[in-house]
Design brief:
Largest sheet: 8 strands, parallel
CATH class of the largest domain: Alpha Beta
Helix content: 25-40%
Number of helices: 19
Strand order of the largest sheet: 1-8-2-7-6-3-5-4
Shape: globular
Bound molecules: adenosine-5'-diphosphate, magnesium ion
Number of domains: 3
CATH architecture of the largest domain: 3-Layer(aba) Sandwich
Number of strands: 21
CATH superfamily of the largest domain: P-loop containing nucleotide triphosphate hydrolases
């Protein structure tokens, strides 16, 4: 087993370049354009193995760039003229499948017309079946739905040469072992299998023995905590706990924070308190419809929501690039989970805060974390938290919802054009643009939000009049 430890300070200038890999010039240029100037440690460790055609087990934390590590391997082997499914990626949830699809799309821009299909539960079968009939090069989906398609005969895997199990630990947690096994057995024996995971529970060895051939293993041990994550603990009483979250937010003023709670009830209670204090907070939980979940994630990722309140189950695997802080509203029962939680802040050359609230009866859990981490908790008193600035923390952006999306052939460029060329705003005042099937969400700077809303409602997008709303107002009135 290859044990690789990244340099304590991930200095981008010393990371290896993609030029060292056997990738096409078009792909190299595309990577440059995407701003992927150097490989992340897991990419540097796994790409040479994957590109050489070996089976692989790669373990590295969330946010370390695992998607590109398998995407580049499968794209390199792809024959665009063959319309059979040549690569398949299994993911635990629809959101993760969507994220993987998007990342592969970005990386595939260099090649001509590569078709990628996402096949997940929760969506109707019919359109998926007809898309499959039209041919696809790559399929990304959840094990259950892929199984359904195999059973109906709507998915043919004869041309498959790469199978990827992404977030394998999470898929096992969710009870997908049998489905994965069935799907893997339906794949041609001659194939490359790549398994990615954030942790290495027992089931992974079992999967690997059954479905991988002489896999090479790459593990990146977690060294990030010492350098990039500043961790502090605060002792709180039961009465202080929920209020303390607002105190932390007003003291540190992070633009984006995930607040982890151990229970759904705690999430609801915290959300109440934060709303009463005037914070812009949203929560993710199992009762949300898919569209509502998407809207929560869009607003959090585009920086128009300050705090995402979530349980571990709801938040796992989400790729949120810029996260200034993680707040542990409760200390987890398992010290490994704590490390996963705080590993979400301080990514990609940024520092992040990991702030934990602990009451007297949680001290044994803090000790378990100290032991696993090999560190001493740094305790600070709540009394040192003083609000910086006089106002409650506000997100820098506001989300506008345009009724109309992919179905109306709206593209991000159309919206950007309407706001910059027609309405006269600068590019810098416009944030992320997410185009979904029926709606488009665009983040704009808070101070131009009203004017942007008015100008979009008065003007045109793609030659047509559109209806535009503040997403938070629509949600509040729904
Ligand atoms: P993981 O699957 O390990 O959780 P992702 O593949 O989702 O991580 O990548 C996390 C983020 O890092 C993504 O936003 C991705 O676009 C970005 N990223 C990946 N590789 C690189 C790279 N070489 N340089 C810069 N950013 C990268
Ligand atoms: Mg991933």
């Amino acid at each position: 087993m290859t044990q690789i430890t990244p340099p304590a300070s991930a200095d981008a200038s010393t990371n290896p370049s993609f030029n060292e890999l056997p990738l096409s010039p078009a792909m190299q240029a595309n990577l440059q354009q995407l701003g992927y100037l150097t490989m992340t440690p897991i990419q540097a460790a796994s790409l040479p193995i994957a590109l050489a055609g070996h089976d692989l087990i790669a373990q590295a934390k969330t946010g370390s760039g695992k998607t590109a590590a398998f995407a580049l391997a499968l794209l390199t082997k792809l024959n665009p003229r063959n319309f059979g499914v040549q690569a398949m990626v299994l993911c635990p949830t629809r959101e993760l499948a969507d994220q993987v699809t998007q990342e592969i799309r970005r990386l595939a821009r260099a090649e001509d017309n590569i078709k990628i299909l996402t096949l997940c539960g929760g969506a109707t079968m019919r359109p998926q079946i007809s898309s499959l009939e039209h041919g696809a090069h790559i399929v990304v989906g959840t094990p259950g739905r892929i199984m359904d398609h195999l059973e109906r005969g709507s998915l043919n895997l004869n041309a498959l040469n790469t199978l990827v199990l992404d977030e394998a630990d999470r898929m096992l947690d969710m009870g997908f072992f049998d489905d994965i096994a069935k799907v893997a057995r339906a794949c041609p024996k001659e194939r490359q299998t790549l398994l990615f995971s954030a942790t290495y529970p027992e089931g992974i060895a079992k999967l690997s023995q059954q479905f991988l051939r002489k896999p090479q293993e790459v593990t990146l041990t977690e060294q990030h905590t010492a350098t990039k994550i500043r961790q502090r603990f605060y002792e709180v009483s039961r009465e202080q706990r929920l209020n303390a979250v607002g105190q932390l937010l007003n003291h540190f003023r992070p633009v984006s924070t995930i607040a982890f709670c151990n229970t759904r009830q705690q999430c609801r209670d915290l959300l109440d308190v934060l709303h009463k204090q005037g914070f812009n907070a949203l929560t993710l939980h199992g009762e949300l419809e898919q569209r509502e979940r998407d809207q929560v994630l869009v607003q959090f990722a585009n920086r128009s929501c300050s705090v995402l309140v979530a349980t571990d189950v709801a938040a796992r695997g989400l790729d949120i690039a810029q996260l200034e802080a993680v707040i542990n509203v409760d200390i987890t029962f398992e010290p490994e989970v704590h490390i996963h939680r705080i590993g979400r802040t301080g990514r990609v050359d940024q520092e992040g805060w990991a702030l934990s609230l602990a009451s007297g009866n949680e001290m044994d859990r803090v000790m378990a974390i100290e032991k696993l981490h090999g560190m001493q908790a740094e305790w600070h008193p709540l009394s040192e938290l003083t609000p910086t600035g006089t106002d409650v923390l506000m997100p820098p952006m506001v989300t506008l919802q345009i009724l109309g999306g992919r179905k109306e052939k709206i593209r991000a460029g159309d919206v950007l054009g309407a706001l910059t060329k027609d309405a006269g705003f600068t590019k810098e005042q416009i944030g992320k643009i997410n185009v979904t099937e029926f709606s488009t969400y665009v983040a704009v700077e808070r101070k131009i939000a009203r004017e942007a809303l008015r100008k979009l409602n008065e003007g045109k997008v793609k030659g047509k009049r559109v209806k535009v709303y503040f997403l938070h107002e629509r949600l509040a009135s729904a």
